[in-house]
Write a structure and sequence with these properties.
There is one protein chain. By secondary structure, the chain is α+β, with helices and mostly antiparallel strands. The protein is 40% helix and 21% strand. The protein is built from 13 helices and 18 strands. It has an 8-stranded mixed beta sheet with strand order 1-11-12-13-16-10-9-4. A 3-stranded antiparallel beta sheet has the order 5-7-6. It has a 3-stranded mixed beta sheet with strand order 8-14-15. The longest helix has 36 residues. The radius of gyration is 27 Å and the shape is elongated. The protein starts with a helix and ends with a strand. The model has no long low-confidence stretch (mean pLDDT 93).
Length: 420
C-alpha cells in the first residue's frame, strides 16, 4: 500500500498518479473523508472510554443518590462507548478496504497513458536477414523434436505444451545460464514454492485487478504463483532486516501458472502466451533511497542475458496506465521475432518502492533504530518464452538452429538439428 502520510500531506501527488494511470482520482477525496471521520470517531471512542473508566472508579466510593446517579451515567456511557467503538471500527474497515485498492504512486518521469504510450529507450543488435523463408518457432519446434503442442493440448488443454528432447535441454540450459549469471552478481539462488497463502498473493498486489489471472486451489485456500516474485516478496514478511545486509538479492527458479483470462484469441498459437512456464526471477530488497539505481542495475542484468543469447531487442519505458498495481516504474525488454516482424516482451523489471513491503511488513532499522519499510524490486532473467526468439533468430535454411555460444556449455550442443 502507499504511505498514509502521502495521502494526508501531499494528496495532489496521489491525484496526479491516479490520473497518469488513467484511474479515478476522486478516490483521494473519498479516502481523506474516511480518514478524517475514522480519526474523529476513534477520538470520540477514546474520550468516552476514559470517562467510563473514571465513572467506574468513582462508583465504589459513592453513596446514596450520588451512587445512583453514577450508576445511571455508567450505564449510559456503556451504550455510548459500544456505539462509538462500532462506528470507529466500521469506518476503519471501509478506509482499509478502499486504501488497499489504490495502486502504487507512479515514479516521476514514467510516461503517462495506456498500453500503446510506452517510450522506446534503445534498440540493440541487428535483426537477422535471411536468404530463405524463415520458419516460425512452432514449425522449428516440430522439426527439431523440441516442442509438442498437439500432445500438450491432448493431455492438458489449450495453451499447454511439452518441451521434448533438445527443447527441454534448451530451456534447462537457458535457466541454468541465468542462475549462473545471477550467482556471479551476488544473488542467492532459490527454488521457490509454487503454492502460496492468500496473504502472500495479496501482499504482492496480485489479488486486486489481476485476481482473474490467478489459479486458486480452493480446498486448501492456496494460490498457484504466476511468478516467483510472490514467494520471494513474502520470504521476509513480518521481519526486520539488517540494513547493512541491503540490498539483499535473490534469484528464484520456479514454474509459473497463469489463467490468461481476457486473452482469448490472442497469441493462441505456440508457446508465447501459455498457462504454465518456467522462469528465473531476480528479486531485491533494498533501502528506499537505493531503489532507483537498483532498478537500473536489474535492467542491465537483463540486457546482459539477452546479449549472451545473441538476440536483437529493444527497451521500453512502460506507460503509467500499463503498470501493475504494485509498480511505480517498469521497463520491458522485447526481443525481435522475425516471423512476426515485431518485438515481443521477454523480460520486465519493476520498481515497487515500499508498496509491497508495507503490505508484507518487511522493514529495516534506520540510523536511529526506528523501523522503516524497505523497497522491493523484481526482474525476469530468463523464461520459457525466450525459446521462441532463440529458435527464430538463430535458424538456418535446413531447419537447424545454431545455439548461441554462451549457451552451448549448458545445452551440450552447438547446433540443434532436425530429427525429420
Amino acid at each position: 500500500m502507499i504511505d498514509l502520510r502521502t495521502l494526508r500531506e501531499d494528496p495532489d501527488r496521489l491525484r496526479a498518479s491516479q490520473r497518469a494511470r488513467g484511474e479515478d482520482d476522486s478516490v483521494v477525496d473519498v479516502l481523506l473523508d474516511l480518514d478524517e471521520r475514522r480519526r474523529s470517531a476513534l477520538s470520540s471512542f477514546e474520550s468516552l472510554r476514559a470517562e467510563q473508566k473514571s465513572v467506574g472508579r468513582s462508583v465504589s466510593s459513592a453513596k446514596g443518590e450520588e451512587r445512583e446517579a453514577l450508576l445511571a451515567r455508567a450505564k449510559e456511557l456503556a451504550a455510548q462507548v459500544k456505539a462509538a467503538e462500532a462506528e470507529a471500527s466500521e469506518l476503519a474497515a471501509r478506509f482499509d478496504e478502499t486504501f488497499m485498492t489504490v495502486p502504487n504512486i507512479v515514479e516521476e518521469g514514467a510516461p503517462a497513458g495506456g498500453e500503446e504510450d510506452y517510450v522506446v529507450l534503445e534498440e540493440v543488435g541487428e535483426r537477422p536477414e535471411f536468404d530463405f523463408e524463415p520458419r516460425d518457432h512452432i514449425e522449428l519446434g516440430e522439426l527439431l523434436g523440441a516442442i509438442d503442442i498437439e500432445r500438450g493440448a491432448k493431455v492438458s488443454g489449450a495453451r499447454f505444451y511439452f518441451l521434448t528432447g533438445v527443447g527441454a535441454r534448451l530451456q534447462l540450459g537457458l535457466l541454468n545460464l541465468a542462475i549462473q549469471q545471477a550467482i556471479e552478481n551476488g544473488f542467492t539462488p532459490m527454488i521457490t514454492p509454487s503454492l502460496v497463502k492468500p496473504e502472500a498473493m495479496a501482499g504482492t498486489g496480485f489479488l486486486g485487478a489481476h485476481a482473474s489471472e490467478v489459479y486458486r486451489v480452493e480446498a486448501d485456500d492456496l494460490y498457484l504463483v504466476g511468478t516467483s516474485e510472490v514467494p520471494l516478496a513474502a520470504y521476509h514478511s513480518d521481519e526486520i532486516l539488517d540494513a547493512r545486509s541491503l540490498p539483499a538479492r535473490y534469484a528464484g527458479w520456479s514454474s509459473c501458472y497463469r489463467r490468461e483470462a481476457g486473452s482469448y484469441g490472442k497469441d493462441t498459437r505456440g508457446i508465447l502466451r501459455v498457462h504454465q512456464f518456467d522462469k528465473v526471477e531476480m528479486f531485491s530488497y533494498c533501502l528506499p533511497e537505493q531503489a532507483h539505481e537498483e532498478h537500473l542495475r536489474l535492467l542491465n542484468w537483463e540486457k546482459e542475458m539477452l546479449a549472451k543469447v545473441e538476440l536483437p531487442y529493444r527497451v521500453i519505458d512502460v506507460a503509467a496506465g500499463d503498470l501493475g498495481s504494485s509498480a511505480a516504474r517498469k521497463y520491458d525488454t522485447e526481443a525481435w521475432i522475425p516471423t512476426q516482424g515485431r518485438y515481443r516482451e521477454v523480460t520486465s523489471t519493476s520498481n515497487c518502492t515500499e508498496f509491497q513491503a508495507r503490505r508484507l511488513k518487511v522493514r529495516y532499522r534506520d540510523e536511529n533504530g526506528k523501523p522503516q519499510f524497505v523497497a522491493t524490486l523484481n526482474g525476469t532473467l530468463a523464461t520459457t518464452r525466450w525459446i521462441i526468439a532463440i529458435l527464430e533468430n538463430h535458424q538456418q535454411a535446413d531447419g537447424s538452429v545454431v545455439v548461441p555460444k554462451a549457451l552451448r556449455p549448458y545445452v551440450g550442443l552447438d547446433v540443434l538439428k532436425p530429427i525429420r
